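Entry 12.
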Amino acid sequence: MNEDHYIEDTHDLYQNAPCGYITICNGGRILNANNTLLNWLDFKKDEVVGKKTFQDLLGMGEKIYFESHFMPLLQLQEEVSEINLELRGNNNKRLPVLINAKKVQTDSGEQSLYRLSALDMTHRKKYESELIAARKEAEETTRLLKQVNENLESFANVASHDLKAPLSNISSIIYLIEDQNLIEPGSQAEELFGGIKKNISRMSGLIQELLEYSKMQQDPDSVDYELIDLNEVCNVVLEILDFEIQESAAVFHIPELPRVMGSKVQFESLILNLFTNSLKYRSEDTPVISITWEQIGSLYTFRITDNGIGFDPGKKKEIFEFMKTVHSKDYIEGTGIGLTICKRIVESHGGDIGAESEPGKGSTFWFTLPVVDDDDFSTI
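Predicted 3D structure (tokens):
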């Protein structure tokens, strides 16, 4: 075949087109139909042409629609497009199609004819059904997840209250014992008593952090986002840590920080956990904690660096896992929940978090947050 001089066979093009063609008269009688449509419906030409109306290919509801809406609209506008119908063929065959139609005049001009094209929508309908099913499944999963989160938060609140009550009673008894000097200094009882106090303190901290962690499971859509001044956040956190800062004589270097979008409460929790981490794992030197930042593309990268005891760099991912600590609890108390909370906060705000460290050389915790455009400032 010479491709440069190829001439399309119009008869073959009509009969074996990738869509169905059908011609009807005013009353709907079928005057012609191509092989594509006949094959789809499992009809022979002599069973349809001149013997059936287009209405014969429709169910009752669609037949009423065709006669009361489709044809009057086609006669008035002389053209209609993208009408969803279901054609019925032999052996109960049903074919969802998308119909486009156009009104044409015969050569004599005495009669109007209507040419219809039909696109097979079987696969599209299947995909639409799968998409609807998937959407419903996702909505149900979201609903169940929200319910689980609500139950978890409720449980955490009740559990923390129920656990705090006996701990509070034990703490009161300990205070009375100490106040009345009932423990002999230097005795084994004093040593055991010290262990009890230490474990009560650890349990109280664990309950509080578990409660904080449970709050991080709530639906992100329920969190109020606003434009946040990170310098204000840092100032609030420094006030909270005032006692620890005075006790350790820690020095903080905090530059002018950019504003970001997010939850103020969660950002305060993020900075509080990271500052507390630097103070808790300090070395014998005066703690020096610095914040630096830079903008790379559409993200801000923040780094909180300290001169603390550091940790094994091979555990830089493990430290963000739930209740994982890289130092012995007998050496430094810790629940292993604080950094998990940090990870969830940063990720829920569209960022990432990580850490770099070496034993004895301090640590750097970094996290990223999306840049807020200047244009967005005026709308908030």
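Annotation: The chain is about 45% helix and 20% strand. Residues 122-179 form the longest helix (58 residues).
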